[in-house]
Design goal:
Number of strands: 8
Low-confidence stretches: 16-20, 40-45
Number of helices: 2
Shape: elongated
Radius of gyration: 20 Å
Largest sheet: 4 strands, antiparallel
Strand order of the largest sheet: 1-6-3-2
Length: 137
């Protein structure tokens, strides 16, 4: 009977450890950059367009996801970040269309705390850009 109880306790402990390892990622903050900082002056009248991109970096206890994309200057955006199971969902939506005659490179740095191993990410910018991937050590 004692061996049976010890086996049950080991199984319960193992299951709880797995759940804690995946489920402890939390959203911390979003920092806007690029054209948000200088209202579009950096790329006005410029022929240089940067690549739309999503990158990430992490340590044992934090994850940073960088999102950079080109859009018309003077646009305004809303953003949201959420965690659903093993997926990180980031949405960036235009709230006001820019009427300026230039392009801008908008950036977001989204920060999370916790263990980021084994998470997937999906970043959607309006309905025209979609990035997906897997966080890998």
């Amino acid at each position: 009977m004692r061996k049976f109880m010890i086996s049950i306790l080991l199984i319960i402990t193992f299951i709880n450890c797995e759940k804690n390892e995946l489920g402890n990622l939390k959203y911390v903050d979003t920092i806007s950059g690029g054209c948000f900082l200088n209202k579009g002056s950096s790329l006005k009248n410029s022929q240089i367009i940067q690549t739309d991109t999503v990158t990430y970096s992490f340590t044992n206890d934090s994850l940073k996801i960088f999102v950079g994309f080109n859009a018309t200057c003077c646009e305004e955006f809303s953003n949201s970040s959420s965690i659903k199971g093993d997926s990180i969902l980031i949405k960036i939506m235009t709230t006001q269309i820019g009427l300026c005659n230039c392009l801008c490179y908008y950036t977001y740095n989204i920060k999370f705390s916790g263990n980021a191993n084994s998470y997937k990410y999906q970043v959607r910018i309006d309905d025209h850009l979609n990035f997906t991937g897997q966080i890998k050590p």
